[in-house]
Each structure stands twice: as structure tokens, then as C-alpha cells.
Amino acid sequence: MPASNNPALPGDLSELFHRAFRSLRHSWSQRLAPFELTPHQFRALHSLARNAADPASADGMRLKDVAERLRIAPRSATEVIENLEAKGLVARSADPVDRRATLVTLTPQGLGLTEEVRAARREHTESYFGRLDAQERAELARILGKLGGHPER
């Protein structure tokens, strides 16, 4: 059988993976639309919520740390945070330790929306991966963990 007709051949795995990822990303973007959030904005809110849950980081996250977590340029992170601030979801303040730095925190509205979106994401995940039975899901999780550098424990 020619390589182009056999999706199980290793050379085609990256294309299959990319296609599945694009499908997941597209469907997730559609689910975010009613919340008027982009994927970067949700990821920023999610990172800020995780950070706020850490008592040692209760004062907020520096903008440069938001950029690093999102793996985007600091200028782009500033734009994401500005859009979230305009929606009343985050607040910025000067870092008391380094006045040149800016700290970002979730507002109560931002925290509430983050929880709503997390619930929608869990629902979306169940729907999207619901095409797989329990054994297939477990195998996919094992394989993705292995590829991501987190082998089974």
C-alpha cells in the first residue's frame, strides 16, 4: 500500500496529530465565543486563577510571567491583559517590590467567568473525546503523556 494511503505509517502521524489538534482548537474557539474570549485570553485567565490559588503568589503575576506562561511576546501579553482589563476581568497594579513591574490579578468577575469557562471546557472535553471508549481514552492519555515527556508513573 502506498505511504500516502496508510494513515498508520509514522510519516503521517504528525499530519494526523496536527489535524486532530486543529479540530480540537477550532471547536474550543467556537465554545469560547459566547464568553467573548479568545483562547489567549482564556489561557491568561486560567494562569492567573492557578497563580491566585498559590498563597505565595496572592499578590498577582507579573506581566512578563504571564507572557512566559502563554509562550507569547511580552507585547502580545500586554495586549491580552489590556483587553481583559477593559472587560473588567483583571486589574493591574504596580509591583510593591519593583515599581517598574506590573502585577496582574483577577477581579471577582474574572474569577467567576474563569470558573464558568472551565466548566464549559470540561463539558467540551467530554463531548470531543466522547467518541473514544474508556480504553481508547486511557491509551491516548498514555501516549500523549509519553510524547509530552511525562511517562506513566
From TrEMBL:
GO molecular-function terms, A-Z: DNA binding
Q: Which residues form the HTH marR-type domain?
A: 10-149
The UniProt entry, under InterPro entries, shows:
HTH_MarR-typ, MarR/SlyA-like, Tscrpt_reg_MarR-type_CS, WH-like_DNA-bd_sf, WH_DNA-bd_sf
Q: Does the keyword 4Fe-4S apply?
A: no
What SMART domains does the annotation carry? HTH_MARR
Q: Where is the signal peptide?
A: none
Protein name as it appears in the record:
DNA-binding MarR family transcriptional regulator
Origin species, per record, is Paeniglutamicibacter psychrophenolicus
